[in-house]
Write a structure and sequence with these properties.
11 helices, two-stranded antiparallel sheet, 6% strand, 62% helix, 5 strands, 3-stranded mixed beta sheet, mainly alpha, 293 residues
């Protein structure tokens, strides 16, 4: 009997069939992971992915570790420096309004606030650097870079930036990003197990990045913009400072940058439009919660 060295094409079909079974199995696991770890954020009303194994205490520990590492590498201004004092006063005003603002936002969506901030150990450091940047890590550790000061120009604008960064921590965006990364890792494992070559893997991850990861990051920035604006307004800062701030931020970055679809941040023009649309709501929060007037 004549032997067919290629098996009449049956072996390739079996390999192809096995690949699809592997991909189907990983897709089922990814779906299970998403369904079992999704929840509704009380401050945005959005369905989010947060791995139930990532606790607020885990985030806080990771935030503290990152904060300590950054302070070991960067030059911090003395706490009694004028800029340090001013930034600390802004932070204190914002932090004082967190319970009221989170209660109000949760009430808008008919939900209870998470109260995550009750476990935060708040602290803020001014770092001597030309970077136009600031951050707030999970657990409440904050830093403002001196390069941001001339761009902000005033306390109202600085409060917009710091309120935005505080909002990232309150919204648990760090835990969401870690959960999204695990979802991406499931996809990479599926590709590797099914025999995809490097070029195919890169193509799949590019589709995931542009179709899921980057839009998700831009949504987080928009959420932090809104919550941060309400927080700053409640702390008696002028919400109208938000639009010129982001115009100056765009100028400080050179006015160029990546197109929105390839960026983790919204287009500056769109960001300003969103903030303009939120001015009426912000003024309501200022009237409701500001106690200096």
């Amino acid at each position: 009997m004549r032997q067919d060295p290629v098996g009449n094409g049956r072996a390739p079909r079996r390999r192809g069939g096995l690949r699809w079974w592997i991909l189907l199995a990983f897709a089922a696991y990814a779906a299970y992971y998403w369904i079992s770890n999704r929840s509704v954020d009380p401050y945005t009303g959005e369905t989010v992915l947060i791995d139930k194994n990532i606790t607020a205490e885990d985030e806080k520990a990771l935030g503290l570790q990152a904060y300590q590492e950054i302070l070991q590498q960067e030059q911090a201004l003395p706490r009694d420096a004028e800029i340090s004092r001013q930034v600390r006063e802004i932070a204190q005003r914002l932090i004082a309004k967190v319970p009221q603002v989170t209660d109000a936002l949760a009430e808008e969506h008919g939900m209870e606030p998470t109260g995550i901030e009750r476990a935060f150990d708040w602290d803020v450091t001014v770092i001597e650097s030309d970077q136009v940047n600031a951050f707030c890590l999970p657990g409440g550790k904050m830093a403002v870079y001196t390069g941001l000061v001339p761009v902000a120009q005033n306390a109202d604008a600085m409060a917009m930036v710091m309120g935005h960064e505080i909002s990232h921590a309150l919204l648990r965006h760090g835990a969401q990003r870690m959960s999204e990364q695990k979802l991406a890792q499931i996809g990479q494992m599926a590709g590797a197990a099914s025999g995809m070559d490097q070029q195919q893997m890169q193509a799949v991850m590019a589709v995931y990045g542009y179709g899921r990861a980057l839009p998700y990051a831009r949504k987080q920035e928009t959420q932090a913009d809104e919550m941060g604006l309400m927080l700053a307004a409640a702390a008696c800062f002028d919400p109208a400072a938000a639009m010129p701030l982001w115009e100056r931020m765009q100028q400080a970055s050179g006015g160029g940058g990546q197109p929105e679809f390839a960026s983790t941040h919204p287009d500056p023009g769109r960001r300003i439009e969103n903030l303009e649309a939120l001015q009426a709501k912000a003024l309501q929060y200022r009237q409701r919660f500001c106690e200096l007037e």
